[in-house]
C-alpha cells in the first residue's frame, strides 16, 4: 500500500492553517503568486476567495497591491537577503478609505524543498492610529488650555498685587501698611509660580527659572537701591511638581522678606543668596545673608506670621529647618532626606 509522501501532508496542513486563520494571511510562492489566502483577508479587502489562488499579488483586487517596493522586499525575503518586519504601507483602493497596514513576512518550510514559500501577515492599524492621533490631539489641546489658564491666573494675581500696593500707599497705619506689603509679596510669589507653570509642561516647575523670576519680583518691589542690596540665585537642574514648588516658593519669599527687613539696618551693602541642591529624593534649600546676624537674648525678635508660615511649609514638605550664624549674617537651611526602612526601624528602636 502506497503512502502519501510527507511533503504533501505538510503542504496541505499549511494551506489549511492559512485558509482558516482569523488573521489576514497570504501564502505566496517565490514568484509572488498567491497559493492561498485566508478568508479573513478576502473579507477585509473585499476580494472574491475563488479568484485568489494562482493570481499574482500585484493583480489582487483592482491592482492596489501592485507596489514595486513591497514586491522587491518580498523577493529579497524569499532569497534570504532581507526581512519584512513591521513594514508599513498605505493601501489605496478606488472609492475606498485608505487603510494603514503593517506587514510581516517570512519564509516557510512546508516540505517542498524545491520551492521557497512566503507567509505574509497583514495587520490593519488604521483605526488604532486614528485613535492615537485623536488622543494626542486631546492631550495637546488640554496642555494648551492649561497653559492659558495658568497665564490668566498669573495675570489676575499680578492685578491683585497691584491693588494691594495701592491700598498700602493709602492707609495711615504703619502696621496695616506692613501687612498689606507682606500680602503683596506673597501674592507676587504665587504669581511668579503661575507664570512659570504657564510656560512649562506636565505640571512641573524648573526651580532655577522659578527662583530667578521670584527673586527679581521681590527685588523690584522691596529693594530701592539695587547697587546696595542684591539677591543671587544658585540652583541646579532640579524640576519639581507644582505643589512642591508652591511651598518652596513661599518659603523663599518669607525668608528673603525677613532678610531684607532685618538683616541690613545700617544701610550698608548687602547680599542675599538663595541656593538649592538635590540628589535623588533628597534636597537642600538655603537662604543666606551677610547682614548683622540674628540678635540674641532680649533683642531677639518675636516669631511672627512669616515664621509660622515657614515652619508649617517645612513640615508639609517633611523637611527640617536649621538656623545658623554665617559670620557675618545668617543662614536658614531647609533640608529633606528620604529615610530607608532600615533607618526607620533603627529610629523606632531608639
Automatic annotation (TrEMBL):
Which organism encodes this protein? Answer: Neorhizobium petrolearium
- Keyword check for Nucleotide-binding, yes or no: yes
Task: Check the record and name the PROSITE patterns matching this protein.
Answer: HIS_KIN
Alphabetized, the UniProt keywords read: ATP-binding, Kinase, Nucleotide-binding, Phosphoprotein, Transferase
Q: Which InterPro entries match?
A: HATPase_C_sf, HATPase_dom, His_kinase_dom, PAS-like_dom_sf, PAS_4, Sig_transdc_His_kin_sub2_dim/P
User: Know the name of this protein?
Assistant: histidine kinase
Which residue range or ranges hold the Histidine kinase domain? 248-340
Reactions listed under catalytic activity: ATP + protein L-histidine = ADP + protein N-phospho-L-histidine
GO molecular function terms noted in the UniProt entry: kinase activity
Enzyme class of the recorded protein, top EC level: transferase
Q: Name one Pfam family in it.
A: HATPase_c
The UniProt record lists the EC number as 2.7.13.3
Amino acid at each position: 500500500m502506497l503512502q502519501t509522501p510527507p511533503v504533501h501532508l505538510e503542504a496541505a496542513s499549511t494551506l489549511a492553517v492559512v485558509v482558516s486563520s482569523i488573521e489576514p494571511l497570504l501564502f505566496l510562492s517565490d514568484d509572488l503568486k498567491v497559493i492561498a489566502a485566508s478568508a479573513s483577508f478576502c473579507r477585509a479587502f473585499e476580494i472574491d476567495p475563488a479568484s485568489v489562488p494562482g493570481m499574482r499579488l500585484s493583480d489582487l483586487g483592482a491592482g492596489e497591491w501592485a507596489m514595486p517596493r513591497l514586491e522587491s522586499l518580498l523577493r529579497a525575503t524569499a532569497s534570504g537577503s532581507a526581512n519584512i518586519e513591521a513594514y508599513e504601507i498605505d493601501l489605496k483602493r478606488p472609492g475606498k478609505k485608505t487603510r494603514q497596514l503593517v506587514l510581516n513576512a517570512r519564509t516557510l518550510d512546508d516540505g517542498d524543498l524545491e520551492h521557497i514559500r512566503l507567509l505574509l501577515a497583514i495587520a490593519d492599524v488604521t483605526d488604532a492610529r486614528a485613535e492615537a492621533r485623536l488622543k494626542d490631539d486631546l492631550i495637546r489641546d488640554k496642555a494648551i488650555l492649561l497653559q492659558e489658564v495658568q497665564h490668566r491666573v498669573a495675570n489676575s494675581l499680578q492685578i491683585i498685587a497691584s491693588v494691594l500696593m495701592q491700598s498700602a500707599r493709602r492707609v495711615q497705619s504703619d502696621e496695616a501698611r506692613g501687612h498689606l506689603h507682606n500680602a503683596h509679596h506673597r501674592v507676587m510669589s504665587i504669581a511668579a509660580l503661575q507664570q512659570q507653570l504657564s510656560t512649562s509642561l506636565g505640571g512641573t516647575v524648573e526651580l532655577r527659572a522659578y527662583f530667578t523670576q521670584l527673586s527679581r519680583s521681590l527685588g523690584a518691589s522691596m529693594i530701592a537701591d539695587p547697587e546696595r542690596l542684591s539677591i543671587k540665585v544658585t540652583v541646579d537642574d532640579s524640576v519639581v511638581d507644582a505643589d512642591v514648588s508652591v511651598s518652596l516658593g513661599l518659603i523663599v519669599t518669607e525668608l528673603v522678606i525677613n532678610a531684607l527687613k532685618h538683616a541690613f539696618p545700617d544701610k550698608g551693602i548687602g547680599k542675599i543668596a538663595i541656593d538649592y541642591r538635590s540628589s535623588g529624593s533628597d534636597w537642600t534649600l538655603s537662604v543666606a545673608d551677610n547682614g548683622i546676624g540674628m540678635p540674641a537674648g532680649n533683642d531677639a525678635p518675636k516669631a511672627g506670621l512669616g515664621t509660622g508660615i515657614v515652619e508649617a511649609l517645612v513640615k508639609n514638605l517633611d523637611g527640617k529647618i536649621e538656623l545658623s550664624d554665617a559670620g557675618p549674617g545668617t543662614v536658614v537651611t531647609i533640608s529633606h532626606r528620604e529615610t530607608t526602612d532600615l533607618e526607620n526601624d533603627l529610629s523606632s528602636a531608639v
